[in-house]
Amino acid sequence: YSIAVIISMIGGVGVGTVILKNNTEFGMLGFVKATIIGFVTSLCSALIILFFFKDLLSSSWLGLIILSVGLIMNQILRYMIVLNKNFKIGALNELVLMLPSLIFLMMSRMDLISILGIMYIIQSLLIVLIFFKNSNNPKLSSFKGTFYIGNSNLISSGILYFLPMIAFSLSGAEITSNISLMVTAAGIITVFPRAMLNLKVKDFHLILLNNKDEYHEQSRTFKKQILYIMMLGFVA
């Protein structure tokens, strides 16, 4: 699961950030194309990760691919929901994912990783079909931007998912459990700053295009706000 999450953080976050920057949302066809671009963007890094951590792959390769595609879809959909600013869709999104998953887990004999991947895919396509069916399908213009953003996200946020994998490879389960708790705490501390950045990335892009001096001033103020919120997270 950690490997699939890392793969989705490259392609899904890369495509999603470009979506926010360009103020783009997709109908079904565009959403599927964006998912393919996200998967292709992730492919090179995914092969490198699997080369070094192949011993940790307990599920089938097919299960890993299905889950990776499902998580990429889910990441892209989340960015479309943020752009739409209709968080009722987000709540329904989680409900649609949760309820059928419980049924599949109890009734299916498939491995857990494949079930999760299939559920992410069904849920994402269903939400797009219901809420974004009338959206245009513009071309995702910046493949290079998607690649750079996705892989830089792997360096920053993705390290949280690498740490338990590395710990398990080197030291076993006991230390891994402690590191997993640290990773969970770090994820909680950074969730609000990441949400703030997602909401601001489009505005910052427009300011940068029109007035670089204002951009530098606004970015300094934003960094101070992020630092303050993260300090509160550490205290909590």
From TrEMBL:
It comes from the Bacteria. Keywords: Membrane, Transmembrane, Transmembrane helix. The chain crosses the membrane at residues 6-22, 34-53, 59-77, 89-107, 113-132, 153-173, 179-197. This is EamA domain-containing protein.
